[in-house]
Write a structure and sequence with these properties.
CATH topology of the largest domain in chain B: MetI-like fold
Strand content of chain B: under 5%
CATH topology of the largest domain in chain A: Rossmann fold
Order of helices and strands of chain A: EEEHEEEHHHEHEHEEHHEEEEEEEEEE
Shape of chain A: elongated
Number of helices of chain B: 13
CATH superfamily of the largest domain in chain A: P-loop containing nucleotide triphosphate hydrolases
Strand content of chain A: 35-45%
Order of helices and strands of chain B: HHHHHHHHHHHHH
Largest interface: A-B, 26 and 16 residues
CATH superfamily of the largest domain in chain B: MetI-like
Structural class of chain B: mainly alpha
Strand order of the largest sheet of chain A: 6-7-8-3-9-10
Radius of gyration of chain A: 24 Å
Number of strands of chain B: 0
Number of domains of chain A: 2
Number of strands of chain A: 20
Number of domains of chain B: 2
Shape of chain B: flat
Number of helices of chain A: 8
CATH class of the largest domain in chain B: Mainly Alpha
CATH class of the largest domain in chain A: Alpha Beta
Helix content of chain B: 55-70%
Largest sheet of chain A: 6 strands, mixed
Distance between the termini of chain A: 29 Å
Distance between the termini of chain B: 48 Å
Oligomer: heterodimer
CATH architecture of the largest domain in chain A: 3-Layer(aba) Sandwich
Structural class of chain A: alpha+beta
Chain lengths: 364, 309
């Protein structure tokens, strides 16, 4: 992260549509050259926030700064932003070249300068052979490249991406994901990227802002968000398959703090508490890949479980277990696949786990 | 790929080496279908009878018409009635035929169509992409306007137009047609633009284009289908109009429909049925041609606008 100064700063931003509050006193500072991903389920306000930054939506309260300049009342074109949309939004009756140059022609940039910038963008995105084609004659991946190019030629400080890969098939999506990452490394621009795809978020972001109900739940580096989610929503939203949750109670006896649920009792001596623990209803969460299958008794917690379903995924295998009455998912390497109905031993270190307050959902 | 069936196991089948059903489903002609087609053909012929009689009669001379054989083909086809209808038919004391009416109709229709479509497309565009305070109310009023019977507003319109000196003038009738085309055309364009991806508009905004530039460079080039629909709607509507023409155009600008009525209803002298028939066909020709040439576009555009909104 090239953190030298703030690029985009959102201060106390609120947005209401009538009585519906979409964004609530939201604050976000994006560093220069940073790649921020806004992640959340649909309807969480992530696209709305992006449209507010772009100036395409009028906000109800607060202010937006880009490069230290208050742009809250500025037109989109004066904000120094370029935007890439999910549906590409290429002008269908113009050639690729005209699509790229439209904004520059509007701004009255001289012809030779336009040509220079288009040549540069076309080279970076490898769309030179497509310049004279109409969007209808392009594939989805090519269209999205042109859409990125349209932001590129404008020489902007901040790139805004609104789910740019969601309309592509899985293979193209992973290819373009890598290209966007390379593009960011090459250009060193600030990028704000909206997606509901956690893999895109994890792979691309310097920092992820997980949103829900118009509020940023957690803003942190991808690994931190993945390993130390601040609440149960974040924990459940990231990771596929989802984190295993067991509902139970936090208790203390002579050997220290323990998590107790039906059929399970987990010692928490290795767990790093976020807050001072208090006995009471608690949710215990552990990711499927942090659970070991049939790997001896060297773990702080071991138990015996029954295999319910085995899902081979190729590279690895998901095993759905029944631990007493609790459902449990474990990710194992493909070679160590158990059979349905088999009794297996599981073990994990609570150090890798997350504990959440049952009522508030916040991390303990 | 299908399982192999031996001849012995399926002796009843015509193609015994294939499992049936196989390939395209055979089309069967049922009695119901024959009935439907028979009805449609008879109905079409029934509605074509008047057209047939009109064409046949317009090609006959008056002596032949007096014989009364309505369905007979003309014994001695002549185009004289058509020439008469166009150039010499009399309305009162003027005997210039239909042609002045034709040119009047052109003078009324062309500007009315152009102006009303320009206004309506801007209306629809603004209502869709630049919602302002009261936009929905305005749109609601416009749609409501589509259901107001014309006769109700004729008198106030006469008063209004004459107070500004436009009553019984060419600009007057053009204004009237533009106003009355506005509700349905705005509805048409608004629904068409509402079905367009809003991201296109956003992208153009980010590119720095304003109201007019987005409209002219982005929206208009994509509006061809709906514009064709609007042109058909307006041309046929205005060309066929009689009421506004006779009330608002003024004597010197009477459109073809009014002229036709005057020719056919002339009470003095012999009733020249052949000339009347020819004149009627000539008047109806323009909308007819428009329908035939662009009927396909018409359906497509209506459907395109109807998907959303």
């Amino acid at each position: 992260m090239a953190a030298n100064g703030t690029s985009v700063s959102i201060q106390d931003l609120s947005l209401n549509f009538g009585a519906v509050s979409v964004l609530q006193t939201l604050n976000l500072d994006v560093a220069e050259g940073e790649f921020i991903v806004l992640l959340g389920p649909s309807g969480c306000g992530k696209s709305t926030l992006l449209n507010c930054i772009a100036g395409l939506l009028d906000i109800s309260e607060g202010s937006i700064f880009i490069k230290g300049k208050n742009v809250t009342w500025e037109e989109p074109k004066d904000r120094g932003i370029g935007m890439v949309f999910q549906s590409y939004a290429l002008y269908p009756q113009m050639t690729v070249e005209k699509n790229l140059s439209f904004g520059l022609r509007v701004a009255g940039v001289p012809k030779d300068e336009i040509a220079k910038r288009i040549a540069r963008a076309a080279e970076i995105l490898q769309i030179e052979p497509l310049l004279q084609r109409k969007p209808a004659a392009l594939s989805g991946g090519q269209r999205q490249r042109v859409a990125i190019g349209r932001a590129l030629v404008r020489d902007v400080d901040v790139f805004l991406f609104d789910e740019p890969l969601s309309n592509l098939d899985a293979k193209l999506r992973s290819e373009l994901r890598v290209e966007i990452k390379l593009l960011h490394r090459k250009l060193q621009n600030t990028m704000i990227y909206v997606t509901h795809d956690q893999i895109e978020a994890m792979t691309l972001a310097d920092r992820i802002a997980v949103m829900k109900g118009g509020v940023i739940q957690q803003l942190d580096a991808p690994q931190t968000i993945y390993n130390r989610p601040v609440n149960r929503f974040v924990a459940g939203f990231l990771g596929s398959p989802a984190m295993n949750f067991i509902e139970g109670r936090l208790e203390k006896d002579d050997s220290g703090w323990q998590f107790a649920a039906e059929d399970v009792r987990i010692p928490l001596s290795t767990y790093a508490f976020e807050t001072e623990p208090v006995p009471g209803p608690t949710v215990f969460g552990i990711r499927p890949e942090h659970v070991a299958l049939n790997s001896g008794s060297g773990w702080p917690f071991t138990a015996t479980a029954t295999v319910e379903v085995v899902e081979p995924m190729g590279s690895d295998t998901l095993v759905w277990l029944k631990l007493g009455k609790q459902n449990f998912t474990v990710r194992v390497t493909a070679e160590r696949t158990p059979h349905n109905g088999e009794a297996v031993s599981i073990g994990f270190d609570p150090m890798r786990a997350s504990l959440f307050d049952a009522a508030a959902g916040s991390r303990i | 790929m299908s399982a192999v069936q031996t001849t012995a196991s399926r002796p009843m089948q015509e193609a015994p080496d294939q499992a049936t059903p196989f390939g395209p489903k055979p089309r069967r002609i049922s009695a119901g279908r024959i009935g439907i087609y028979a009805f449609l053909i008879v109905a079409a012929l029934f509605f074509l009878i008047p057209v047939y009689i009109m064409v046949v009669t317009s090609l006959k001379g008056m002596p032949e018409i007096r014989l009364g054989h309505l369905f007979n083909l003309p014994g001695d086809p002549t185009f004289q009635p058509w020439a008469d209808a166009w150039l010499h038919a009399c309305t009162g004391r003027d005997c210039n035929g239909l042609s002045p009416g034709f040119y009047n109709s052109l003078k009324i229709t062309v500007p009315s169509v152009v102006i009303s479509i320009i206004c309506a497309s801007i209306n629809g565009y603004a209502l869709t992409f630049w919602p302002y305070k009261g936009a929905n109310l305005l749109f609601g009023l416009l749609v409501f306007g589509a259901f107001v019977p014309y006769q109700v507003v004729i008198y106030p319109l006469i008063i209004g137009l004459s107070s500004v000196g436009l009553f019984a003038t060419l600009p007057g009738i053009i204004i009237v047609h533009t106003i009355f085309g506005m509700p349905i055309l705005t509805l048409l364009f608004r629904n068409f633009y509402a079905a367009m991806p809003v991201e296109l508009f956003k992208a153009a905004r980010v590119d720095g284009a304003g109201f007019w530039r987005i409209f002219i460079y982005i929206m208009l080039p994509m509006s061809v289908p709906i514009t064709v629909v609007a042109v058909i709607l307006q041309v046929t509507g205005i060309w066929n109009d009689f009421l506004f023409g006779i009330v608002f155009a003024g004597r010197s600008n009477w459109p073809m429909t009014v002229q036709l009525n005057n020719i056919v209803n002339t009470t003095t002298g012999v009733r020249e049925y052949n000339v009347n028939m020819a004149a009627t066909i000539l008047t109806a020709a323009v909308p007819l041609v428009i329908y035939f040439v662009s009927g396909r576009w018409f359906v497509r555009g209506i459907a395109a606008g109807a998907v959303k909104g």
